Amino acid sequence: MVQAAKPLDFLWFIPSSGDGAYLGSDELSRPPDPGYFREIATAADRLGYSGVLIPVGAACEESFVLAANLAAFTEKLKFLVAIRPGTATPAYYARLASTLDRVSNGRLLLNIVVGGSAQELGGDGIFLPHDERYDHAAEFFKVFNELIETGKSNLDGKYIKALNARLQLPPVQQPRPPIYFGGSSEAAIDFSAGLIDKYLTWGEPPAQVAEKIAAVRKAADAHGSQVSFGIRLHFIVRETDEEAWRDADRLISKLSDETIATAQDNFRRNSDSVGQARMVALHNGRRDKLEVSPNLWAGVGLVRTGAGTALVGSPATVARRLREYQELGIDTVIASGYPHLEEAYRVAELLFPALGIEPQPSPLRASFGERQVFGGGGHGGNVRSSV
């Protein structure tokens, strides 16, 4: 059993565009349902995940509204919520962020998502070329950060103009909620330097992640700032490696070659994201070479945009692979699995002990001290163990 000296900070994912048991199929799928999202969030809160990522996009529920709803049903869970510059003013986002941090009692995390689909951004009224989007975002966050940290800002910029902007009510967290960001292009990394608290990478092979971490650290050092690192991964964890690989195959067993081709064509035509291109390059749409690094499986990326890789294996195997990322500097994992409710339990029950992540303490006792084993849930209750 592999254990790190310091356990990873482990977050889960809210699938706000829908969920399912098979990729590329409507069999056993689950539509976007606020009640279902609450089930996942309350399970994550109880199981010991530190937070949840709520995605952003035209196909997703609005992240700030959904986070506010889920905060009312949870106690400790933090919410990693996206800010997409250009869809609203920095002053409006500052009010949203401050209010959400206040109503959740300091449980907000902010995720900068500049956007990688020119088609979707056009629908939001954003028509800037790839690199220029980061110039715009730099001005946006100058105003946003000044407002949320000091309550006032002025800027006469090329993209953003704020005249005597004010924020009356400060957030709970000081000087502001932590800022997360992921972007693989040079423009993205340059933009992040001196601004963010945590840099996120999608689940690439360790050698590629190491190169990215080195580039981000170099940029941060040039600004005299420090940054920590997280990784976004899917998980297929089972009691044995063999069982895990069978379930990886099962996840794409109803996925047709035609569906893969359509998804890959959409990626090429609609995305100018460097990170998305790096994900596609791991498999190039081929389903016969999906283990791109030991236990790192790219099957999810055959049809899913964004994070497209999963760690597959037994708890000991997956913990060993995560330790390799930790040794590179990764201290945070944003995880998911299909379906997200059931897999939240699997990962917590199987993987957390191998990572040294302690379960949430409970005041409830299952017995008066005798060791018991599960008796099937009948009216007679559990059975006293003979060992």
UniProtKB/TrEMBL annotation:
EC number: 1.14.14.5
Pfam families documented for this protein: Bac_luciferase
Keyword presence, Oxidoreductase: yes
Lineage top rank: taxon: Bacteria
InterPro entries registered for this protein in UniProt: Alkanesulphonate_mOase_FMN-dep, Luciferase-like_dom, Luciferase-like_sf, SsuD_RutA_monooxygenase
Gene3D superfamilies listed in its UniProt record: Luciferase-like domain (3.20.20.30)
BP terms from Gene Ontology: alkanesulfonate catabolic process
Record keywords: Flavoprotein, FMN, Monooxygenase, Oxidoreductase
UniProt domain Luciferase-like: residue ranges: 10-331
Single GO MF descriptor: alkanesulfonate monooxygenase activity
Membership in a protein family: Belongs to the SsuD family.
The name this protein goes by in its record: alkanesulfonate monooxygenase
